[in-house]
Amino acid sequence: EDCVFIRSTLQRVKGRKLMLQPIPKVFVSNKVESDGLFHIGPCDNAFGLGDFLSATPLAKKLGGKCVMHIPPESERYAFLFDGLCPVKTSDKFPVFQYTPGIHFARSKLNLFGFKDSPIEPEISISDYDVYQTKAEFGLKPNDICFCPTCARSWESIRMRPEEFWTPIISRIAKKFTVYQTGDAEYPTINPAIRLPFVSVKQLAAIYKAVGRYIGVNTGDSHLMVAVGGKVIDVIPNEEPVFSYKEWLYDSPRVKYVNFSK
Fold this sequence. Notes:
Layout: E1 3-4, E2 10-13, E3 17-20, E4 23-24, E5 38-40, H1 49-53, H2 56-62, E6 66-70, E7 87-89, H3 104-111, H4 127-137, E8 143-147, H5 155-158, H6 162-172, E9 177-180, E10 193-194, H7 200-210, E11 212-216, H8 219-226, E12 230-235, H9 244-247, E13 254-258
Parallel strand pairs: 5-6, 6-7, 8-9, 8-11, 9-10, 11-12, 12-13
Antiparallel strand pairs: 1-4, 2-3
Helix pairs in contact: 4-7
């Protein structure tokens, strides 16, 4: 069957059930379209922050020769491509075919022949946005952001309980002011300061202003990498539940610490 559930379009039927609406899948092609541009889109059935960030290295390489397609429900991520390529919001969009065991950014670059290009995401946040954010939250260079939460589908694999983080954050707080981000339902780890809910763009400005991150491997950690910050990622065991190759970076700015260490 040509139709697959590449996104969860929910439709209420007579107030009773929610049904998924199938949408035809069209894969991203490395061939120029009739308008003279390459048309790229999100990951296959994955529309999170990290998924969109994984397309920024390719967008940077293609420059003005490509258009990034974003579904309407993900429009908040359009700013990630500012200065990289035009963005088109549409219900009809191509997706990158999932390649198991290969970094999400690398598989996109490989499709277009950029086999040796860096895979770290990179976005632009204006100095003005950073200045405004620093003033609003009182951020300083010796602060650090802490995110203990991730997407619901990964919670049982990537997240750690409150008692895991408490001694770590208590120790870090002796040298840094710790700002906690992430899901509001997760307890605030004392003495961290809980930041209020902000847009993804303002969160990027916060991360650029602070420049340091500790937490789980999630969209927030990739966002810190994208703004040029340093990351300590606390990650679970490898296969079969978590593939290092698909999400981790070989970068001096990123350090990975396993749960068991």
